[in-house]
Amino acid sequence: MVSAPGKSEVSTSYLAIGVAMVSISFASIFIKWSESPPFIIAAYRLLFSCGILLPFMLWSRGFSELRNLDRKELALIVLSGVALMFHFQLWIVSLTLTLVSTSVILVTSHPIFVAAISRFLLKEEVKRIAAAGIVIAFAGVAVIAVTDYGVGKDTLFGDLLAFIGGICAGVYFLSGRVARQKVSLATYAFSVYLLAATPLFVSAVFAGDGLVVTDGRELTLFLAMAVFPTMLGHTMFNYALKRVPAHIISTSVLGEPVGASILAYALLPGEVPNEWIVLGGGLVIFGLYIVLSRGYRPKAGADIPID
């Protein structure tokens, strides 16, 4: 049992969520700009993130904390790492097969799954107003996905990969919600990113990709991915997971498609969202507003039953 956070802690977590939503919107843009293979992009992004976290691990004695974790906590970290690895693999490949706006929205279509698991497995309250907001946001996802049905097989396959990648992201948030109650932010994030990066490098080998990247432009993009969508994005979400339920964090990720679509329109040639994407994006924003503004309020003296 974990004591519910106070209002100031929740406010700080919501600030972190806001920073994360803006930061992760840049991920698909950086990926589109990169000329490296998908597995290399994901692996280097996470490896550079681990490099940024390494001083914090040494300063906070994170490696000592990691050695003292029990089996349950270690299992949750492993589950998070594997889920994050599949999330990145499937999503980055999907970006080569479908529009940025569609791929990003489908890969963030996990809030309903996360809310259901939070309610029945973690025993966390999912307010009716939050459920309504999630449904509205997911309706926006459906509207945008419909636009790809008549485009072709490759696009539909890209949509499927993005959707499965979204399910993996849901598992990542749920396991992180439990693990973060006892594991510090630096230790959790470093371990999960490293666990995800290692099999991505192995996948790159089987795919025939060159593991050594020396091009300065590509390395700069990898560093940008590590700083913005990973450290200021995923890591801020992981920070908030200790204080805010997983279904709130999961739904907040839906802010990414809107930001990514705007950035894609401004920065990527040919990435012009049609009227259906605009309509779906509006529904996503409306649903997101409902969930974040009214979906969660901690009760004084209450406990979060997550054991």
Q: Work out the number of β strands.
A: 2
Number of domains: 1
Q: Structural class, from secondary structure content?
A: mainly alpha
Low-pLDDT stretches are 301-307
Largest sheet, described in full? 2 strands, antiparallel
**Rg:** 19 Å
Please list the strands of the largest sheet in the order they lie side by side.
Answer: 1-2
- The average pLDDT value, as a whole number, equals 86
Counted by DSSP, the helix tally is 14
Percent range for β-strand residues: under 5%
Alpha-carbon distance between the two ends? 6 Å
Helix share, percent: over 70%
**Could you spell the SSE succession in H and E letters?**
EHHHHHHHHHHHHHHE
Outline, from the CA principal axes?
A: globular
Brief write-up:
This protein is mainly α. The protein has helices spanning 7-24, 27-33, 38-59, 62-67, 71-95, 100-107, 111-120, 128-146, 153-179, 185-206, 216-240, 246-252, 255-267, 275-294, and strands spanning 2-3, 303-304.
Describe this structure in words.
With 307 residues, this protein is mainly α. It has one domain. The protein has 14 helices and 2 strands. It has helices spanning 7-24, 27-33, 38-59, 62-67, 71-95, 100-107, 111-120, 128-146, 153-179, 185-206, 216-240, 246-252, 255-267, 275-294; strands at residues 2-3, 303-304. A two-stranded antiparallel ribbon has the order 1-2. The longest helix is centred in the middle third of the chain and has 27 residues, at 153-179. The protein is globular and about 50 Å long. The termini are close together. Mean pLDDT is 86; it is low at 301-307.
